[in-house]
Amino acid sequence: MRPDRRLVVFALAALLPVGAAPRDEAEARFARERAALVRELEADFAGEIDRRVLATIGTVPRHHFVPDAIDDAAYENRPLPIGHGQTISQPYIVALMTDVLEPRSDMRVLEIGTGSGYQAAILAKLVARVDTIEIVEPLATSAAARLAALGYANVEVRHADGYHGWAERAPYDAIVVTAAASAVPPPLVAQLKPGGRMVIPVGAPFLTQTLVLVEKRVDGSVRTRQLLPVRFVPLTGGH
């Protein structure tokens, strides 16, 4: 006699850990949404971006870097709130800023403004080492725990005022600043290696700013180039 299919299904389900099927289904959905985001970014950049950057965005689980209450929106191409008046940047901007740094596997990068850790996670897959600074202590603590839990062993988070950089770890091959400064901070320029690049939003807080590329020449002189209008939360601290 053939077994009742309904009983077989019930028996198999009973062997699974509680919640495993819904969790697997959610991860599969997030993977589809992540792939759709990469396709959207490919169209936006029309080939004018390092494909390694887009491939990395396709592997980093952005839904782990946003609050659970809004993880359904994790792969929308827009910034999202992460608490404490801060946001996780729009994926397009993350891709652009990462690409502008021209990441290499031997680079050491400094990030100012860890937030939830998403930009650091992207960079960690493309460079040798990421040092990242966050001034909001709860965000620094949670980002450090999150990055460690997800296996990003080449990232270190520091709770400090990012305006002053991380002098004892300098110089850096590249610096990325994810909060808007009224001017390019001199300590960060000083901590950039000759031949290095920094990307930073510059302008008044809560208004449209300009994303600026700072290049330090081999002789130590500096050249800046304006890239595009952006809007970031302000760089805070005692400077």
Helix content: 25-40%
Overall 3D shape:
globular
- The CATH architecture is 3-Layer(aba) Sandwich
Strand percent estimate: 15-25%
Would you state the CATH class? Alpha Beta
Total beta strand runs = 9
Reported by name, the CATH topology is: Rossmann fold
Number of domains: 1
* Order of strands, widest sheet: 5-4-3-6-7-8-9
What would you give as the CATH superfamily?
Answer: Vaccinia Virus protein VP39
- Helical segment count: 7
How many strands, which pairing sense, and closed or not: the largest β-sheet?
7 strands, mixed
Write down the Rg. Answer: 20 Å
What is the residue-averaged pLDDT? 91
The class by helix and strand makeup works out as alpha/beta
**H/E series, N to C?**
HHHEEHEHEHEEHEEE
Itemize the secondary structure elements and their pairings.
Blueprint: H1 5-15, H2 20-45, H3 51-57, E1 80-83, E2 86-88, H4 91-100, E3 108-112, H5 118-124, E4 129-134, H6 137-149, E5 155-159, E6 172-177, H7 186-190, E7 192-202, E8 209-216, E9 222-230
Parallel strand pairs: 3-4, 3-6, 4-5, 6-7
Antiparallel strand pairs: 1-2, 7-8, 8-9
Textual characterization of the structure:
With 239 residues, this protein is of the alpha/beta class. It has one domain (5-230): Rossmann fold. The protein is built from seven helices and nine strands, in the order H-H-H-E-E-H-E-H-E-H-E-E-H-E-E-E. The protein has a seven-stranded mixed beta sheet. The longest helix has 26 residues, at 20-45. 38% of the residues are buried.
Give descriptors for this structure.
disordered N terminus; 7-stranded mixed sheet; Rossmann fold; 239 residues; two-stranded antiparallel sheet; alpha/beta
